[in-house]
Design goal:
Helices cover 46% and strands 20% of the residues. It is built from nine helices and eleven strands. It has two domains: 14-134, no CATH class; 147-363, Phosphatase 2c, domain 1 (4-Layer Sandwich).
């Protein structure tokens, strides 16, 4: 069965995502000119109306096309619009023959200066106008695409869910998976920070880790990931990770962690959960670190759960108590079967205060 990944954004097919990106790229070319013409015409209408009745028409109305232009125009077009708005303000005063309040003058000029400053800054970043928002959307979609689980044989079921703190579209917790023949490798990562602050690092690491998975033997993945983070020189930036390698033919597995919460293995024969304690430092802190593996196997009807600390740790709850609560909820959840298990468990433990990610793997 195909593994699934769920996030705060509804799932999209790859073809639809690529088509939407192509549409955005093609429409951006001529849209700036059309927006500029529309906003210049709007400014002209404001000027005419204000000139006919300045006493009741507030001068601050000229801020409206400026704000709209800052959202949709590139810097060179925004400068043109700013000149048109300034001319409209001057024409209004001359035609109306009245002196507007100084507060109104100061307000319009302040907004104008701030908009030009922000536009100049965004232009230097290459994210002017609507391009900046489109870039963020593309980055978000790319992060979610990299976290898709590969297709699995019918006797295996997997589900992964990622949710960000406060409902933001970017998160510091992510999942990357790769399948090489019968070998499935999954890494669950928690980047330092949360929400938007950790989103850029998560995007960078998801691409790098996706390239390492399957390209190296499983025992070399975490050392290589640790060396990669050390080269980034992020200062206080680090990441915890849990790496799983499992044979889809035999069920044999190896599990390693780097400063990450332990994995949980459900044994169908005994009906009990086993804590998989693997030891290793967080990534990006110690050069040449060792990561101790836990080995074993998934028998038919066994299951494995990997998660980030957002599910078990809160300012009011100890880490150990959080794992006990997670196990208790997992026990109660078993009565409903394994289908959609990750989402159901996350709903039971959901907390918007931290990024969360969880992976369920079940051998039918």
């Amino acid at each position: 069965m195909t593994g699934t990944v769920v996030s705060d954004t509804p799932p999209r097919g790859r073809a639809f995502t690529h088509a939407r990106r192509a549409l955005r790229a093609s429409t951006r070319t001529g849209d700036d000119n059309r927006w500029l013409i529309a906003l210049v015409c709007f400014t002209f209408v404001i000027t005419v109306v204000a000139g006919l009745g300045f006493e009741w028409f507030p001068l601050s109305t000229f801020v409206v096309p400026l704000v709209a232009g800052s959202l949709v125009l590139e810097r060179r077009h925004l400068v043109t619009l700013t000149a048109v708005v300034a001319a409209g303000v001057l024409a209004t005063v001359v035609v109306a023959g009245a002196t507007p309040p100084r507060v109104a003058w100061a307000g319009v000029m302040t907004v104008l200066a701030v908009i030009l400053l922000v536009a100049s800054y965004r232009s230097r970043l290459g994210a002017a106008g609507r391009l900046g928002e489109s870039m963020l959307i593309d980055l978000r979609d790319r992060l979610q695409t990299q976290s898709e689980l590969p297709a699995l044989p019918e006797q295996w079921y997997a589900q992964a869910i990622m949710r960000s703190a406060g409902g933001a579209q970017f998160a510091g917790d992510f999942i990357v998976a790769a399948r090489t023949g019968p070998l499935l490798e999954v890494v669950v990562v928690d980047v330092s920070g949360k929400g938007l602050a950790a989103g850029t690092r998560a995007l960078q690491l998801s691409g790098a880790f996706g390239g390492l998975l399957g390209a190296l033997p499983p025992e070399q993945f975490l050392p290589a990931a640790n060396a990669y983070l050390l080269r980034q020189d992020w200062g206080e930036g680090f990441a915890t990770a849990a790496h799983l390698a499992v044979s889809l033919d035999t069920g044999t597995l190896s599990f390693r962690t780097a400063g990450h919460p332990p994995g949980l293995h459900f044994h169908a024969g005994s009906g009990r959960w086993e804590v998989l304690d693997s030891y290793g430092p967080a990534l990006g802190l110690i050069e040449g670190a060792d990561f101790e593996p836990v080995t074993g196997g998934l028998d038919p009807d066994d299951a494995l759960m990997i998660y980030t600390d957002g599910l078990v740790e809160t300012p009011e709850r100890d880490f150990t108590l959080g794992i006990d609560k997670l196990l208790g909820e997992a026990e109660r959840m078993l009565s409903g079967g394994w289908e959609n298990s990750a989402e159901r468990l996350l709903e039971r433990l959901d907390s918007a205060g931290d990024d969360r990610a969880i992976l369920f793997l079940h051998r039918r």
